[in-house]
Amino acid sequence: MALHLFRSQFTSSLKQLTRSLSGISIPSIKCGVSEMPVVGLGTWQSKPGVVGAAVETALSVGYKHIDCAHVYQNEAEIGESFAKMFGEGGIKREEIFITSKLWNTFHRADEVEAACDTTLKNLQLEYLDLYLIHWPVALEPGKGTLFPVDDDKVSMMDTKSPSFAETWGALEKLVESGKCKNIGLSNFNIAQIEEVLGCAKIKPANLQVESHAHLPNLELLDFCKKHGMSFVAYSPLGNPGSVFRKEDQVDLLHEEEVLKIGQKHGVTAGQVLIRYQVEKGNAVIPKSVTPSRIEENLNVFGFSLDAADVETLNNLYKKAGPKGYRTCNVLHWQNSPNYPFTSEL
Predict the structure, then answer these.
(1) Which of 72, 131, 325, 339 is catalytic?
(2) Which H helix or E strand runs over 47?
(3) Residue 72 annotated to the active site
(4) What is the pLDDT of residues 54-65, one digit of tens each?
(5) Which of 117, 114, 163 is nearest to 142 (CA)?
(6) Closest of 154, 52, 158, 151 to residue 111, by C-alpha
């Protein structure tokens, strides 16, 4: 589809979407010194040329939470949309919770601030509401790529092996300078979070991980609640249509149990899976670039799942295997001493 036609369709849809969701109230959860709206727009795998329009649609219909990352390589386009919506769009920047993430090639202390500055410049922002260490794995910087590999195509780990304490200390300085309101972690396991907690002057405000009914991460969620960390679920629909999906991966959107719960409440399977995260006290960031789907994903506050529904979804992972089914297992980083999913190998 031609880009101008795609944008035209987005524009023609905005008025209908805005009318249908006007006045919607989105609950929030505590995230450090801030309040995080429980449903946000994810931008992972949203391609340049369409991601900006998706962000504009989301903000127009009432989203208050946008999730970004340097490695998605679409922050500059998102920044153009932020500038538009925070200007002529009449939306107040301070009412939108914006997250970004520090990439693996910038874990050294002297790389962190510059990486954050690049994100702020691309997003056309003065501060981030939340900045996360994207992965516990540190990759070799200065190779001209975000995914450095050697001659044998093996991922190159950072030869200086920066510690979590080194990287976290640099993030704390971003809070002190006002560039970030809150800082947190993504894709860390419990032992790794404990290591950060042991050195932190500013406690991690958030953990973002893959979480859905095939990978509920209940132990990790309980740990976060115990330590006062908010929990954000990415890929809540199980990554449908993603290149990261495995050939034998069952589609959550077609799971019989999910469909039955949807029929019970008169909602779609996707809405069930998003509401599932809300019921557990999490925030959730479904990704879409389709206007109708962006609307649908936010429209999950007119129903609730009962205890039996949640219990069914909590146990659905057993159909996928004893530990569930992780889509984003980054097996190409197994050679890192900080690979977070060793227990699942």
Answers:
(1) 72
(2) none
(3) yes
(4) 999 999 999 999
(5) 114
(6) 158
